[in-house]
Amino acid sequence: MSKRQVKYDTDSLDEVNNSVSFNSNSSIKQKFLSFLGPGLLVAVGYMDPGNWITSMQGGAKYGYILLFIILVSSLSAMLLQSMTVRLGIASGYDLAQVTKHYLNKPLGYVFWIIAELAIIATDIAEVIGSAIALDLLFGIPLIVGAIITVLDVFILLFIMKFGFRKIEAIVGALIFTVLAIFIFEVYIASPDVTRILNGFIPSSKIITEHGALYIALGIVGATIMPHNLYLHSSIVQSRTYDRKDEDSKAQAIKYATIDSNIQLSIAFVINCLLLVLGAALFFGGNSESLGGFYDLYHALKTQPLLGASLGGLMSTLFAVALLASGQNSTITGTLAGQIVMEGFINLKIPNWLNRLITRAIAVIPVIVCLIIFHGNEAMMEQLLVFSQVFLSIALPFSLIPLQLATNNSDLMGRFKNKLWINIVSWTLIVILSALNIHLIIQTFQEL
User: Fold this and answer.
1) Is the pLDDT of residue 1 over 50?
2) Which residue windows are coiled coil (predicted)?
3) Model pLDDT for residues 394-436, shown as the tens digit of each residue
């Protein structure tokens, strides 16, 4: 595929493309601050409600052993997001646009449908997380809370009127709110530091125990999310670097990668805190009945080690952080939906309609599940975990086009993949696909 084959009438996410000032001749500090932001929006996807449920269940049921999975997933995410940065800046196209031109028309539609399903799966996690948070904080029934989340899209549209930087600032404030809450909660829980450190050492139990592997793949799916690959390749183009100058592109790639790695490091810390909190408070006890949002909320509230007043504070902060996380992820999920639709099928519809359709489709299975199971909380949380495993299964359909595109010299020029990146990225794709097949076989054997 040569670069001249990719033709689009408009830029990727054209309402924000090339809209944020970036001066390649300014000081290092100014250049860094200019590019600080897109990584925040990407990092949100690495700490959404799906991460919460998988990490906390992993800690409650299997202790600290899955910290290794969080570490590997986070390092892998840094590499993959850096590849999307290079793709977006070097080529001027997003991953959806490029993928379409790698495939024939029928196969292109298959990849588009899988990408849309992955975004819907991501949205399901946000809907469930936000609805549960509203129930915990205000006693709003789950089905009403799920419907209320449809209105989130209008909040995003309102914020975008004030500029893309405002979105980044709001997301950043919510991220650091979540971080502060969980640092405080883990501090109060007083986990064993030695056991935490040992958790970063690989354990054979992750593969041999079906339950641990299921949660591990859920963590992978919740950490390396397909929609983030499409999102990042687009929003890095929001800066006003010189599109025709190779040195300007190189600087943009450098600072965008730094931004991405910093924000993903914060996401890594938050995910570790989530797992550590689940392990410190619940592992070794009646862990089979713990790990869900409601279980954790009530367990925090009644935890003997915390006392009534401190337990009440921690449970409330937990619900506040959950709501903030769900709202954050809403912003990035709706943006990714627009990028995928425009990139794959070159269909541009009004932003409010695009986002409303995506969210409405995600709300439908949640409401159906609530009706069928009469508002059963446990079923909601299991649906959320399944959505994360689906993301892991869908991930290769985004990773393979990303790998092929970033290794294409016609498209990338001097910014194509180095040999070690090709080796590592293909290894990730093969290992992840093999683990998925193993999980599916195990699941059918146990039916």
Assistant:
1) no
2) none
3) 888 899 999 999 999 999 999 999 999 999 999 988 887 777 7
Query: Do 218 and 49 touch, CB atoms closer than 8 A?
Result: no
Distance CA(56)–CA(33), nearest Å, equals: 34
- With CA atoms as reference, report the closest residue to 389 among 43, 58, 61: 58
Rounded Cα distance between 133 and 323, Å, is: 5
Q: What DSSP character marks residue 3?
A: G
Taking a C-beta distance cutoff of 8 angstroms, is the pair 42, 228 a contact? yes
3-state DSSP of 31-65: HHHHHCCHHHHHHHCCCCHHHHHHHHHHHHHHCCC
Q: Which pair of tokens denotes residue 218? A: 């859920």
Judged against a pLDDT cut of 90, whether residue 181 lies above it is answered with no
Q: Where are the alpha helices (DSSP H) in 93-162?
A: 95-102, 105-138, 142-148, 152-160
Give buried/exposed letters for 27-60 (b at 16+ CB in 10 A, else e). Answer: eeeebeebbbbbbbbbbbbbbbbbbbbbbbbbbb
The SS3 call for residue 210 is helix
pLDDT tens per residue, range 13-37: 666 666 577 666 778 888 788 888 7
270 near 35, Cβ under 8 Å? no
The number of residues in the chain equals 447
* pTM of this structure: 0.84
Measured CA to CA, the distance from residue 401 to residue 410 in angstroms comes to: 15
Where do the domains of the chain lie, and which CATH numbers do they carry? Answer: 3-445 (1.20.1740.10)
Which residues are 20's β-sheet partners? 239
Q: Is 239 helix (H, G, I), strand (E, B) or coil?
A: strand
Output the DSSP codes for 60-108.
HHHTTTTHHHHHHHHHHHHHHHHHHHHHHHHHS--HHHHHHHHS-HHHH
